[in-house]
Write a structure and sequence with these properties.
Blueprint lengths: L2 H26 L1 H7 L4 H27 L6 H21 L4 H31 L6 H26 L3 H19 L9 H4 L8 H7 L1 H22 L1 H5 L6 H13 L1 H6 L1 H4 L5 H21 L3 H9 L5 H15 L5 H30 L1 H27 L7
Length: 399
């Protein structure tokens, strides 16, 4: 990597690391924060479900505005999102009571951060096209690693300083992110008026789906994968308790999964030189299936840990391969929307998992929940195979 490449990569690493550090505070510790503020479990569920649903609506909408190539660039929207998160975190730190106000602010910042996530990915491809060589896999992997490390230290900090430390840490990370984003300006590149004049942005969902049918079918498959992925993550303690697992065991399982994402993501550029993006996505789909199957048949915590280790072939491959899949498949004016739809598949999988799996746990227990999750993942694998096969035999190529 050249000296210039290291400079761009370093700043992009900071953007990713601070984003996922804040993600830990807003998402991973959402229940902890809201319970302390007087929310019931039911109200917490409503808050997070509403925020996720809103993010699914706004992600393609905001992406469509960016794709129009106006003043709303990836960097400008990233800065605005970071500023909104910063303001929201300050307000949550200062407000001591008032469930309705906290509900509104927390749902909004949760939603804004979800909307902002695919824009970070789209920003990489934009800057790479402008000659800013960035090691995407390493940056994204260190983002996940940062999430794992910050989550561990945040848990200890809450025990010592109280739940408001979450917002204090978020304010620090967001301030750093805003400063880095402000100076993260890509070099000017000559405008390509001749080529861009023939390009059309497909901002309408129906038109977009008609233009990229195989891609949108793969998005449906992604929903299936992340249904099971979120079921395991959200209800890990209920799954491992019958196996003799404890909260400490759960922490180890989560840490294994998060830490093993780094090597795969860091090496993804080299891996893609040997394996096509479409085949990587099929490998990822298969790994999601194996991970869920291992969790279903696990007789002890050792097999649970092996299941979690499959994260390095499942989630850790899906995220960067999905990003490159969009870049290879979409026309330039549709790429931010493409990244948004990939992220929507993750979000929708979580929404359906939250709404369905909690009920399944109450009625039939964790074993039956995992059987349903395995069935959904199997359906996702079949859909992904069909989608990628169709894509390979169609004209659905990047223009």
């Amino acid at each position: 990597m050249t000296k210039t490449g290291r400079f761009w990569t370093l700043r992009y690493i900071i953007i990713n690391a601070t984003y996922f550090a804040v993600y830990s505070g807003i998402h991973a510790y959402a229940s902890v924060f809201l319970l302390e503020k007087g929310f019931s479990n039911t109200l917490i569920g409503i808050t997070l479900a509403l925020a996720n649903i809103l993010s699914v609506i706004f992600q393609p909408f905001v992406a469509g505005l960016i794709d129009k190539q106006g003043k709303l660039t990836n960097r400008n929207v990233s800065m605005a999102s970071t500023a909104l998160l910063l303001i929201g975190s300050v307000l949550l730190l200062l407000i001591k009571s008032g469930i309705v106000v906290i509900f509104i602010i927390f749902a909004l910042i949760y939603m804004v951060q979800m909307v902002y996530q695919p824009i970070i990915t789209a920003m990489y491809f934009e800057y790479e096209a402008a000659g800013c060589h960035i090691y995407y896999g390493l940056a994204r992997g260190l983002g996940s690693c940062g999430f794992a490390v910050v989550s561990v230290f945040t848990g200890m900090a809450i025990g010592r300083f109280g739940v408001n430390i979450l917002m204090i840490l978020d304010i620090i990370f967001l301030t750093v992110a805003l400063i880095v984003l402000y100076f993260f300006k890509k070099p000017e590149v000559p405008s390509q008026t001749s080529s861009s004049a023939n390009e059309v942005a497909h901002n309408n969902l129906l038109v977009f789906t008609k233009t990229y049918p195989a891609f949108m079918l793969f998005v449906v498959a992604g929903v299936c994968f992340f249904f099971a992925h979120n079921a395991i993550n959200d209800y890990m303690i209920q799954i491992i308790t019958p196996l003799g697992g404890t909260e400490a065991s759960m922490g180890t399982a989560v840490f294994i999964a998060a830490l093993l994402e780094l090597p795969t993501m860091a090496l993804i550029d080299k891996i893609m030189k040997k394996i096509t993006v479409k085949n990587l996505l099929l490998i990822s789909a298969t790994a999601f299936l194996i991970k869920t199957l291992l969790m279903l048949v696990a007789p002890n915590m050792t097999v649970v840990y092996i299941s979690q280790a499959m994260q390095m072939f499942a989630y850790a491959v899906f995220i960067p391969a999905g990003a490159y899949f969009v870049n290879q498949t979409m026309a330039r004016l549709d790429q931010v929307k493409g990244q948004a739809y990939i992220n929507c598949s993750i979000t929708l999988g979580g929404v359906f998992s939250s709404l369905i799996c909690g009920r399944l746990l109450d009625i039939k227990g964790p074993h039956f929940m995992l059987i349903v999750s395995l069935a959904v993942t199997t359906a996702g694998l079949v859909i992904a195979f069909v989608a990628l096969k169709v894509l390979g035999n169609s004209k659905e190529k990047r223009s």
